[in-house]
Amino acid sequence: MNHVELTACIAEASPLRYTPAGIPATNFVLDHESEITEAGSARQVKVTMKAVAFGTLAEQTSRLTLSKPFRFTGFLVNARGSKSVVFHIQAFQPVSDQVLNPL
């Protein structure tokens, strides 16, 4: 199964565009930073990832605030004609500071 959930901030967002079929689309660069335990040791994780949203989701995400954390859900595909990966966003929700920094 190809299902991804990622809490990240939008580092860059392109203006809303339309595909040749007339579907709204927005391209993003997402930044993620966290600490994960791997093999019993804490590891700092940093990821920068290309992402895209289509349809009404593209219209909604094109208005999101840069550098604010969101939980994105979707799937991964190879970029057209490339071996790089693009995260196709299917849903998102804001993340509260309480979730990011539990007491």
TrEMBL record:
<keyword id="KW-0235">DNA replication</keyword>
<comment type="similarity">
    <text>Belongs to the PriB family.</text>
</comment>
<dbReference type="GO" id="GO:0003697">
    <property type="term" value="F:single-stranded DNA binding"/>
</dbReference>
<dbReference type="InterPro" id="IPR012340">
    <property type="entry name" value="NA-bd_OB-fold"/>
</dbReference>
<comment type="function">
    <text>Involved in the restart of stalled replication forks, which reloads the replicative helicase on sites other than the origin of replication; the PriA-PriB pathway is the major replication restart pathway. During primosome assembly it facilitates complex formation between PriA and DnaT on DNA; stabilizes PriA on DNA. Stimulates the DNA unwinding activity of PriA helicase.</text>
</comment>
<dbReference type="InterPro" id="IPR023646">
    <property type="entry name" value="Prisomal_replication_PriB"/>
</dbReference>
<protein>
    <recommendedName>
        <fullName>Replication restart protein PriB</fullName>
    </recommendedName>
</protein>
<keyword id="KW-0238">DNA-binding</keyword>
<keyword id="KW-0639">Primosome</keyword>
<dbReference type="Pfam" id="PF22657">
    <property type="entry name" value="SSB_1"/>
</dbReference>
<comment type="subunit">
    <text>Homodimer. Interacts with PriA and DnaT. Component of the replication restart primosome. Primosome assembly occurs via a 'hand-off' mechanism. PriA binds to replication forks, subsequently PriB then DnaT bind; DnaT then displaces ssDNA to generate the helicase loading substrate.</text>
</comment>
<dbReference type="GO" id="GO:0006269">
    <property type="term" value="P:DNA replication, synthesis of primer"/>
</dbReference>
<dbReference type="InterPro" id="IPR000424">
    <property type="entry name" value="Primosome_PriB/ssb"/>
</dbReference>
<dbReference type="GO" id="GO:1990077">
    <property type="term" value="C:primosome complex"/>
</dbReference>
